[in-house]
Amino acid sequence: MAKKLSKKELVVFLNEKASLYESPNFITTDPIQIPHLFSIKEDIEISGFLTATISWGNRKSILKNAHKLISLMGNSPYDFVMEHTDTQLDNLEGFVHRTFNAVDLRCFITALKHMYTKYNDLESFFALYKEEKHLQGAIHEFKKEFFSIPHPQRSTKHVSDPTKNSAAKRINMFLRWMIRSNEAGVDFGLWKTLSSAQLSCPLDVHSGNVARKLGLLKRKQNDGKALYELDTQLRKLDPKDPVKYDYALFGLGVFEKF
Predict the structure, then answer these.
(1) 134: number of Cβ within 10 Å
(2) What b/e sequence results for 168-184 when a residue is b if at least 16 CB atoms lie within 10 Å of its CB, and e otherwise?
(3) 49 close to 78: Cβ distance less than 8 angstroms
């Protein structure tokens, strides 16, 4: 049925679903609830980035471990990043979420301190490398700079690189959180130097499957090429805010088993 929808019907259908799921009720089941615990920009950025980094697998497990991670940082992410001692880093021992462990967390804390020391905030870095229609090149540059300090090689796998044909789901989700308007009370709209028009859909198994059923995506793998294909189609539906449809695709997949 969905594949028979005209473009006009598809826009109406997806707009309705996007409006339905982009509401404060969405927060209660989503990892975005973690950065919503904070009001200071840097705390929102850091808690959001770290939470997005571990956002794969069972959602209850993601939320449990994200809360634990924030607790280990004394519920003050920015202060911890900028002022931590070696002893405090040692106290992270034992943290684990799937393949992301205390070694990786220590690395990410020190890398974040490097980013904030050099660029003042994460927005400034992404703004340096933004392109008119997307931020995938900026993500590539971010990974290079993030791991420009001494680091365990194992930790690099936890930041995806679009130039390696990755859909970079988690970091694209983080960018959505930071950039999209907070008008609906879900995303934050913190980064004013970047635009919703530059965002890419956080492509995962749920949004990918729904996009295929709706005829928005033909490629079978959820990789960088699939993301480009989906982005191209979503920009035709709403060039100014294509990633609002992430709510529709994800909601249809997770909550409606579309």
Answers:
(1) 19
(2) bbbbbbbbbbbbbeeeb
(3) no
